[in-house]
Amino acid sequence: MMESFGADLIEQLRRNLGDAFQAVSGENLDWGALLVQVLGQLLVSVIYLGVFLGVYLILIAAIRLGLGERRTKTPLYIQMRSGLRYLAGLGALIVILAQFGVSPEVLKAMARAGFMVLGFYVVWVVFRRLIKEGTSRYRMDPSIRQLVENLFAVIAATLAVVTVLAQFGFDVVSIIAGLGIVGIAVGFAAQSTLSNFIAGITLLIERPFRIGDWVTINGQEGKVVKIALRTTWLRTRDNIFTMIPNDSVASTDIINYSAEGVTRLNIPVGIAYKESAKAAREVLMPVLLAHPEVLQGAGMEPRVLLKSLGDSSVNLEVKVWITPDNLDVRPRIMADILEQMKEALDAAGIEIPFPHLQLFIDDAKGLKPVLEPFYRLRG
């Protein structure tokens, strides 16, 4: 019963396909002739595909033999191999489509469009190479190179699409006009995005900071890990990533700790009024001079200065310099120095005071009945 049902289903599908083909073409469908024709076209297509694949492999083997094994790992060889692979695929596609009755006009348009796409790719590769060499020679920021490459890629892709469409008879002028109208509409709908984009270009040109710098932006302190066209990425000391819109970055105060190289740390220390600031300095200086991460070059000697006279303490300030590489661990260095200074002051017997209040009472006659018993005890 199942076999009979399957045979009936196949016969029904064959009949329906035949009726549909007859309705479109006006002729009766000859399944045998159609099957022979399709198999013949597929066989010829496979033969052509094998021919193009063989030619491609022979050319690649000849190039590898001529260049040598070492040069086959260079970007030039990889790009050349991609180009030959593209040409082989394009040729095979055109020949195979010709077997299925595609008109010569469409095939010519496809060939012209394919070669134009290859030309745009070659121009892109050459331009990218020039940009890479230029940024390396003039030591330009990698973000500027990324910006130029992205802009050129968008322009090249747009021109390539318009050129390819022109080969198939599309009205290029109408397409460009339509893109202009769409661009205006998108511009009004995405003002914030465009504002961040323009601010990102401004940041890349003015370069108030670079990738790897430690900065404070909008109250957020962190290391710059990426300067994109819309946002700036910071990594905090807690390994938390913060993305700040470039519009906000360009309109706020920026503190760059890495711009001038070495950085000075100011560490406050307080001692009691009965202690000598000079004696405290003599105790603290050996600690600073012995610390491995404190610089001691000309003009960067560690110092201990008297900053102010507070309510409960004599306020000193320790000034030391560290290298840009140590900005990542600046809090650790400050905590380490502060701990060693406390131990040195404790060992020297120099008091580190805490806030306290001393109260003097003069002519407080109302408190006399309360205080008289204490006076008698003292007497």
Task: Provide a descriptive summary of the structure in words.
The protein has helices at residues 2-25, 31-67, 75-99, 104-137, 142-167, 172-189, 191-206, 246-250, 277-290, 330-348, 368-378, and strands spanning 214-217, 220-227, 231-235, 241-245, 254-256, 263-271, 303-309, 314-322. By secondary structure, the protein is of the alpha+beta class. The protein folds into three domains: 32-188, no CATH class; 206-256, SH3 type barrels (Roll); 263-348, Alpha-Beta Plaits (2-Layer Sandwich), CATH 3.30.70. The strands form two sheets. Strands 4-3-2-1-5 form a five-stranded antiparallel sheet. Helix 2 runs antiparallel to helix 3 and helix 9 crosses helix 10. The model has no long low-confidence stretch (mean pLDDT 79). This is Small-conductance mechanosensitive channel. The chain crosses the membrane at residues 38-63, 84-103, 109-127, 147-170, 176-205. Residues 193-258 form the Mechanosensitive ion channel MscS domain.
Short synopsis of the structure:
With 379 residues, the chain is an alpha+beta fold. The protein is built from 11 helices and 8 strands.
Which descriptors would you attach to this protein?
379 residues; alpha+beta; SH3 type barrels; Alpha-Beta Plaits; 3 domains; three-stranded antiparallel sheet; 11 helices; MS_channel_1st; mechanosensitive monoatomic ion channel activity; transport
